[in-house]
Amino acid sequence: MIDVYIWGRATRISPEAPVPVVHVKRRTSTLGGAANVMRNIITMGGEVEAFGILGHDARGDELVKLLKEYNINTESICFDENWTTIEKQRIIADSQQLMRIDYEDLHPVADSIREKIANDLIDLIKKNHLDAIIFEDYAKGMLNDTMVQKVVDVAKQHNCITALDPNPRHLMNIKDLTVMKPNRLEAFAIAGMVYTEPTANVEDDENLHQVAKVLMERYNPKYLLISLAAQGMAIFKRDGSLTVSPTRAYEVFDVSGAGDTVISAFSLALAAGANSSDAAEIANHAAGVVVEKVGTVTVTKDELLASFDNKTIF
Fold this sequence. Notes:
Elements: E1 2-13, E2 20-31, H1 34-43, E3 52-55, H2 58-69, E4 77-80, E5 87-93, E6 96-103, H3 111-126, E7 132-136, H4 145-157, E8 161-165, E9 179-180, H5 184-191, H6 206-219, E10 223-227, E11 233-237, E12 242-245, H7 258-271, H8 276-290, H9 301-311
Parallel strand pairs: 1-5, 3-4, 7-8, 8-9, 9-10
Antiparallel strand pairs: 1-2, 5-6, 10-11, 11-12
């Protein structure tokens, strides 16, 4: 996806309707969706190859240009003349988001495209060219159970990390992932349980523990990473243990893309040899940096190091 921001000022109300009139000053565009995950990995020092689908349209051309600006390999992107490249346009006035406009025309992706992407991934896995694969499910039609499970099974045989950011609107029955990363609301929805507000201590949150038990039994990930907003994040493991990493954000201005940053940093840290607790701490610091900014942004290596210098007490 491509994220577009229309920046301006709102100083009066429209005479036509009770809505603000925005005097536009500038337009900016950046990588969104799975492409924002790729961008985060690049800015933190990793290397990325893009897999996905774009339309033969101006938005697709702009997105490819942005990917190349970050040295992201675009050779494995598939183009479909029947697909509309997704754009999320946000209207920002005086640092406040007033509205979001989505341009998309969703329909099932052709099986031939899914098969090509899966086979290309498997080929790279077998050649040991990949350390990790992140599946970003935005329920837009790209992923399905058969495709993802096929790749996960091969990745498991070759010690390649697999991470899934799931979507409750598109439940997939994927077994044996390395990482499954829903947020609290998504975790309850995927488990089919009524949402409850968090307790003061994550360790004492019985409903969250029950949700984690359901998800671990159903999907059997090595790590179930549940992001908990102000409470940080929780890592549940197959042995039943829980590790809680508290939030590292001082001030929250915009949560756009924070989940992308978490799965990027956690997966990249695992691929670099970190254990799950350290990877979660790194991801927490990374998310803490991006939510203190406005817009879909990333964290750099220098910002991440500065966060540890300034905020961590050992």
